[in-house]
Specification:
The chain is 46% helix and 7% strand. By secondary structure, it is mainly alpha-helical. It is globular.
């Protein structure tokens, strides 16, 4: 006997699919935190050293890197990236019909 399985196509934003409030903001924060994690690893920094650079303690760095970043603003995350020596650009353009994102943040 075979069971019929249904597949639901995602929206492209897992946070919206899971019903999180403010899914676009959460997705933006997740992308920024991913960049921060990559930069910390690239520089071979400890969480304590990163925390000192960001002006926060090591446990808060650990929480952020493990996905608990609701209390940190997008602006503050961008300032962490800047303190790691990267430029942050905010690009806003007309959304395409298939992509309803409001804007894009570019880290260089």
């Amino acid at each position: 006997m075979t069971k019929k399985q249904s597949v639901t196509r995602g929206s492209g934003n897992v946070f919206a699919d899971l019903g999180h409030p403010n899914p676009q903001e959460h997705r933006t924060k997740a992308r920024l935190v991913s960049q921060i994690a990559d930069l910390i690893e690239e520089r071979q920094m400890t969480q304590a050293a990163a925390g000192e650079l960001f002006g926060i303690d090591q446990p808060k760095v650990s929480e952020m890197l493990h996905g608990r970043f609701r209390g940190i603003s997008v602006y503050r995350l961008m300032s962490f990236i800047a303190s790691l020596g990267r430029d942050v650009e905010i690009v806003s353009k007309k959304a395409r019909a298939s992509n309803a994102e409001m804007g894009k943040i570019v880290v260089r």
